[in-house]
Amino acid sequence: MGFLTGFYALFFYVAVLIFLVGVGHKIYEYARTPAPLKVPTMPAPLTTTGVAWRLTTEVVFFKSLFRANKWIWILGWVFHFCLLLVLLRHLRYFIDPVWLWVDLLQPFGKYAAFGMVAGLAGLLLRRIVVERIRYISNPSDYIMLILLLIIGMSGSMMTFVKHTDIVQLKAAFLGFLSLNWQYNLPADPILFVHLTAVFALMIVFPFSKLLHAPGIFFSPSRNQVDNAREKRHLAPWAAKLEN
Amino acid sequence: MAAKATFDVPQMQEYPIIPMLKPNAMKTAGPFIAKPEHQAPLGFPCELVENWEQKAVEKLGELLEKYRSLRVYLDACVRCGACTDKCHYLLGSADPKNMPVARQDLLRQIYRRYYTVPGKIFGALGWEWGKKLIGAKDMSKEVLDDWYNYFHQCSQCRRCSVFCPYGIDTADISMAAREIMDSIGQGQKYCNEIIGKVFKIGNNLGLPGPALQDTLEGLEEDVEFNTGVKVRFPLDVEGADILLVTPSADFFAEPHVDGLVGYAKVFHQAGVSWTMSSYASEAGNFGMFIGSYENMRKISLRIRKAALDLKVKRIVFGECGHAWRVAYSFMNTLAGPFDFLDPKYPVPQHICEFTNELIKAGKLNFDKSKNDHLKITFHDSCNVARATRMGDVEGGQFTIPREVIKAVCNHYYDMPAETIHDKTFCCGGGGGLLTDDLMDVRIKGALPRMQAWKQVVEEQGVTHLAAICAICKSQFTKVLPYYGFKLDQVVSVHQLVSNAIILDGQTEE
Ligand code: HEM
Ligand code: HEM
Ligand code: SF4
Ligand code: SF4
To answer: ipTM value of the model?
Structure first.
């Protein structure tokens, strides 16, 4: 194992660990903290099935965002949908043999790169140009978009301009996953840029606004059933007030 | 109208526009600060405590443990900007800190500094650039001043929450911030003084039992004079079937009181026995405005006690917005279970639900022509629309009041679709802002609603705006003149019912 491969193997482990433990801990915190009052944004569904559907429309179609602002919606939705395709396509580096549906997705995942980059570029442009959004942006908001743009553009470079040795890469990553370090990563600077940015993203994920991904499922204004008159909704700390 | 000149009233436009930002346009010292005698009865420190910076941060930590909403909302915002043009105070004042996300960020910057890993690291190392990078700030007087000012420019109307992709509710954030400020000794006079009055006397206006009795007798005489029918306004009648809890403004403010007359006529005509309570003579629950679970609970328990003492079978709430939120969404949790009441009826019921059921059952007769001089539109009160329901289907809070109005009026028109139902604009005076020391904020916040109203006035010839919230009614009667309308152009929904209802044995006027 070469030095660079060793370094990236370590980087990979650290990033995966921070990502999994960090996000896992956040989810645990969200789940553990009580929601002591019924606060769904009304009108809200009257049944659990209704709530599941409400959340689905939010996660899959960004429904509230659609009602709010068509520009942010189209840019954001294209970015996220393409991101999903890209990530699914990436599964092929980590599983062997590759599942059929991942295989079938390959051509879509490949061109999704353009949608992802275009969406991100549009969001970045809005952030710079629209006065209100510029006002609310922190440096980290720009950096997040730039980081994702670097990932998207370096990935596209490998896909469309200067191919990397995928077979070697896959061997190396499957090796990392089974704690076997005999295969080297292809010595490709673009790949190292790609991986550096990806691992950085994984490390900041649990400490940043990227928590919106798990957060949306825990948002009381979206995930509660409208049944306050029928059922009491007493949190443990509130129950203590009753004695 | 000499006072008019002192406020800068925003221009109504042909079409709603998003203003260019004017930083610090609304930077003031905020509303009057609560005095020791307003703080003490609520269990809050009387003045800013010694190490308040630290105490504020600790209180935030305590709230993070108690409320999942706060935790998720403070983490999840991606600063997408979808909410930035949704707040009536932003639209009316152009102050960027009135953008919902910017308002949240006032609290979020402290959360990021003290309760996230990067914030703690940058803080410990004293790296200013790092704090800036992630939008974190140390707790300081400057931050507290911004909190006090801008968290009292939020009417907790939840409009931003409707449009946020994660449902982040700035109302919840405002409540948390106000609770933190109360806990370190910087409360708002208006809210805390009123809560004190409820504890001491039973209602927000400090109207004691005997005065209430007098007022109600006066109303009985008026109604008998006008209709020839003896309609009762009972107080503290043990064994009545229904306890009516209504905002105390209904006892004498215009047009609220005309609504109260409407409820009484409906009860009379339905032939039910009902009563009000001098102990729980207030529907409004200002405990919510200050985010205090304990105070909200104590006020709700008064209603429970009144229901038990008077041995009623049902509880019905009068026309009020935030009150209906606490009643509908929280009361069962705060002061339940209400298993001693008649299980056939939801607890509590809204007067509009009650009246609508009677209308549907054909039990009420109306002479709709009595309202023919009015062309009505309906203002969905923010908290009724976005925080409660009526009836047993989703969205009943939109249909039921409109059905009631249409049953008693011939001329009804909706305001533009972008400004009604769950997209409704707040009146500008909710959430503990209905005080003269916030007049400038209230006038500016009313702009989007006034604009939408102006449109139906011009296009459909609408003459009156019907409301089902005591705060909306008070706010409109106060701010309408600034926008060139007359203050009596606001009516209660049950005032319209009162106009049209035909009482048995009624003498023609
Ligand atoms: C459950 C999964 C997810 C949902 C429902 C979701 C939803 C959203 C929504 C509604 C927005 C606001 C609109 C926009 O600006 O695009 C947003 C923004 C964003 N999301 Fe996600 N997201 C998810 C997962 C992710 C993941 C896994 C990533 C990153 C790798 C991500 C990165 C971002 C970024 C960077 C923004 C901010 C865009 C900007 O700066 O304008 N999201 N997300
Ligand atoms: C350890 C994780 C990852 C590895 C090993 C990896 C590796 C690669 C490789 C080798 C390619 C070139 C594919 C080809 O030549 O056909 C690529 C493309 C790409 N990657 Fe990654 N990547 C990783 C994670 C990510 C993540 C998390 C994202 C998105 C946030 C991403 C976004 C892209 C994009 C947009 C492309 C171009 C389109 C495509 O071929 O799918 N990658 N990646
Ligand atoms: S809409 Fe929600 S996520 Fe977007 S900026 Fe506003 S609060 Fe943040
Ligand atoms: S709750 Fe209403 S007043 Fe408060 S920030 Fe949101 S839109 Fe504005």
So the answer is: 0.96
